[in-house]
Specification:
Helices cover 6% and strands 35% of the residues. The chain is mainly beta. Strand 3 and strand 4 form a beta hairpin.
Length: 78
């Protein structure tokens, strides 16, 4: 289950209009955390995104942006 936790933006000016960061707690199926290559985890994008169209993902200390485009496609950028 995804439980979104809203955090206040660092410094939001009217000109930048950057969205608030959302931190989510995602519960993984049993065995998925073990790194078993036979385990495949499925997350539905509507549960992952909720009411936002943009997520920030931190992977090995690097920040990535996953967003839904106007055409409904997923776009991952660094």
């Amino acid at each position: 289950m995804i439980e979104p936790v809203l955090t206040a933006p660092r410094s939001m000016s009217a000109a930048s209009r950057q969205p608030m960061e959302v931190q989510s707690k995602v519960s993984m199926p049993a065995g998925a955390a073990s790194g078993d290559p036979g385990i495949e985890t499925e997350l539905h994008s509507d549960r992952l995104f909720g009411h936002t169209r943009r997520l920030v993902i931190v992977h090995h200390g690097e920040r990535y942006c996953l967003q839904v485009t106007r055409a409904g496609k997923l776009l991952l950028t660094k």
